[in-house]
């Protein structure tokens, strides 16, 4: 029963109701008002409603699914759940962890629950291996195990293919070293937990790069790219991961023998409407001719290791090739088919390319005076060099539609010119060739008054660019040149080549990679090269490959400056600021010999540790899945040296040390007595 004002009032004798209503109506002739008694009952009903809500919540607080947030730790304490480190973007919640505790403990000690636990608390794909099942043992004749063979069959291609991977099924002799220190594996009490830090990201209906009439590459920029598996979800907790359930590279042998698992419209790899393909090695010929080996005669050939496609000689060459595939990377930066809508501009008119306008330049001509949004709705090549002009006080955003990654191919510099308080935003674009240039004046001598340039979720290709269509091969060059004064450039979640910026402008870089391709090259400086200081710089959560020279290092926080030390007195310093009285550098790796303003908790703390404490990367080649990923051999002062105790650099916000700590915290609850677990990073 709900105790509202009307409900309580109707419980009174009818005589009292009538008299009270007459009293209320007498206050203002011709209008009805509640009498004093009914008004009093209204106040009482409000307090009863508060009590009812409190009683209902007390009942709900008995269950983890419906309890208030502050009750979650208390219920967790009742079932003995250990608290986890929470961080922004975590894939788990304390409520879910407490709710799953009982169901997990019913399967305590099993490989299935350890695998599910690892997924839940790290957010990474996981696989668990019970190494006692892979020990070479002398068998009891009354209890034979035919699958546990001490001798490996070299003709079993599948076992040979997965040697030294998490799916290695070959038996081994006893290894008594400790698995917790990741030195030994094969022992009776040992359980291995493998984690995939890299994820696979999709590219759909994208143009393949044309080498010639019969040779193509999956990557639109013409790089050799390792293709990755798109993990198949596991529906049951009792299911242990197999190679198709994890984001791992696709090998030639595996794809050849399990083509149907990897090739198809809804699989990891697909080419146009080609239903049948052959899998082979399409490596470069060793005779220096530039040809590929194993060119096919009757079927389309695919090389998943190099990301290459060869069309057969006995069929007409294709006119256009579109591909679907997955690539590996650590995080959602640089543009791609991941959700980016939270970074879009809003409240501006939207025009679409190519639905409404055939080219980006045609759309820019329409929006020059009014401002607006140019949204690219496909993954095609856009071979053009737009000239951007924005009227006073207007904003223009050139962006890829959510879940798209178009390629803008420049054959010259993309010049950006704006009036007073004008703003240009680039979002989700992959830019090859040329550079973004902010000139001082336009062709007529008018001064450029652009207020700001924003580059978000974009890639300004580091290094040289290959020939695409009518645009010739271009050598390595800076990808952003800021000639004008008093402009603000903001780069976020992006990958870019070297930057040159006037010392009277300001550049903000966050959660990005600035890559000059070498620790001896110059990643950031002024317009006159090595001898000039670049714009005022504020850089956070970023990895910079190459030397840096700035007028003022306003702030550097959680940054890895990967630059070579000066070889002699005439060589440029690795990282230098012209003015040392302003600015601050905190929680960053600074190469020895750098000249910067005051530092706080930077590494190495002194020169004696400089040899040991230095960044070590799994790859510094753009396009590799492990690009700019710190090696597991890197010093802990760097891998846990950020202000949030995560790693320095571009992947700080992944909170990788916290994920591993959470897993170690929970493991002891679910391991059987006497078992030991080792955590291994599979990628």
UniProtKB/TrEMBL annotation:
InterPro entries: Pectin_lyase_fold/virulence
Domain of life: Bacteria
Protein name from the UniProt record: Phage tail protein
């Amino acid at each position: 029963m709900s105790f509202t004002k009307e409900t309580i009032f109707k419980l009174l004798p009818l005589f009292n109701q009538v008299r009270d209503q007459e009293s209320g109506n007498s206050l203002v002739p011709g209008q009805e008002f509640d009498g004093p008694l009914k008004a009093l009952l209204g106040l009482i009903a409000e307090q009863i409603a508060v009590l009812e809500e409190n009683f209902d919540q007390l009942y709900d607080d008995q269950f983890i699914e419906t309890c208030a947030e502050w009750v979650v730790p208390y219920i967790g304490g009742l079932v003995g759940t250990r608290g986890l480190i929470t961080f922004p973007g975590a894939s788990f919640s304390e409520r879910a962890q407490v709710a799953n505790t009982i169901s997990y403990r019913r399967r305590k000690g099993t490989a299935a629950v350890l695998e599910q636990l690892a997924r839940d608390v790290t957010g990474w794909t996981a696989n668990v291996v019970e190494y006692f099942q892979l020990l070479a043992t002398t068998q009891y004749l009354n209890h034979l195990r035919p699958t546990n063979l001490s001798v490996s069959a070299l003709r079993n291609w599948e076992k040979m293919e997965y040697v030294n991977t998490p799916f290695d099924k070959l038996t081994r002799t006893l290894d008594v070293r400790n698995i917790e220190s990741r030195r030994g594996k094969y022992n009776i009490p040992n359980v291995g937990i493998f984690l995939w830090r890299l994820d696979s990201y999709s590219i759909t209906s994208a143009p393949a790069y044309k080498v010639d009439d019969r040779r193509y590459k999956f990557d639109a920029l013409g790089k050799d790219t390792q293709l990755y598996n798109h993990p198949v979800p596991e529906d049951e907790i009792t299911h242990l991961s197999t190679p198709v359930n994890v984001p791992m590279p696709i090998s030639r042998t595996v794809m050849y023998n399990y083509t149907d698992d990897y090739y198809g419209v809804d699989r990891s790899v697909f080419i146009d409407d080609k239903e049948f393909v052959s899998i082979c090695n399409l490596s470069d010929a060793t005779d220096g001719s530039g040809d590929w080996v194993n060119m096919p005669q009757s079927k389309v050939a695919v090389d998943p290791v190099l990301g290459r496609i060869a069309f057969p000689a006995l069929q007409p060459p294709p006119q256009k090739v579109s591909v679907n595939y997955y690539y590996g990377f650590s995080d959602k930066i640089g543009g791609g088919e991941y959700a980016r809508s939270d970074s879009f501009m809003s409240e501006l008119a939207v025009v679409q390319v190519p639905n409404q306008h055939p080219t980006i330049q045609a759309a820019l001509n329409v929006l020059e005076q009014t401002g607006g949004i140019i949204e690219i709705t496909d993954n095609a090549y856009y071979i053009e060099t737009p000239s951007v002009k924005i009227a006073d006080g207007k904003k223009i955003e050139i962006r890829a539609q959510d879940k798209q990654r178009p390629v803008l191919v420049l054959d010259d510099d993309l010049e950006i010119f704006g009036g007073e308080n004008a703003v240009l935003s680039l979002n989700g674009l992959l830019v090859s060739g040329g550079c973004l240039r902010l000139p001082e004046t336009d062709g007529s001598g008018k001064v450029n008054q652009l207020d700001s340039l924003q580059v978000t979720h974009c890639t300004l290709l580091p290094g040289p660019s290959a020939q695409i269509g009518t645009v010739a091969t271009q050598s390595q060059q800076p990808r952003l040149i800021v000639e004008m004064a008093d402009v603000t450039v903001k780069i976020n979640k992006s990958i870019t080549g070297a930057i040159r910026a006037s010392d009277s402008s300001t550049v903000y870089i966050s959660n990005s990679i600035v890559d000059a391709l070498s620790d001896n090259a110059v990643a950031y400086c002024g317009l006159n090269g090595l001898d000039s200081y670049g714009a005022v710089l504020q850089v956070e959560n970023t990895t910079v490959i190459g030397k840096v020279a700035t007028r003022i290092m306003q702030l550097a926080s959680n940054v890895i400056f990967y630059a070579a030390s000066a070889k002699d007195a005439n060589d440029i310093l690795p990282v230098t600021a012209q003015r040392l009285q302003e600015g601050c550098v905190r929680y960053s790796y600074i190469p020895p010999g750098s000249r910067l303003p005051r530092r706080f908790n930077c590494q190495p703390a002194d020169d004696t540790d400089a040899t040991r404490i230095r960044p070590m990367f799994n790859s510094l080649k753009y396009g590799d899945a492990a690009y700019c990923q710190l090696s597991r051999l890197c010093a802990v002062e760097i891998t846990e040296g950020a202000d949030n105790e995560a790693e320095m650099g571009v992947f700080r916000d992944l909170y990788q040390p916290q994920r591993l700590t959470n897993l170690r915290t929970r493991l002891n609850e679910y391991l059987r007595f006497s078992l030991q677990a080792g955590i291994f990073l599979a990628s």
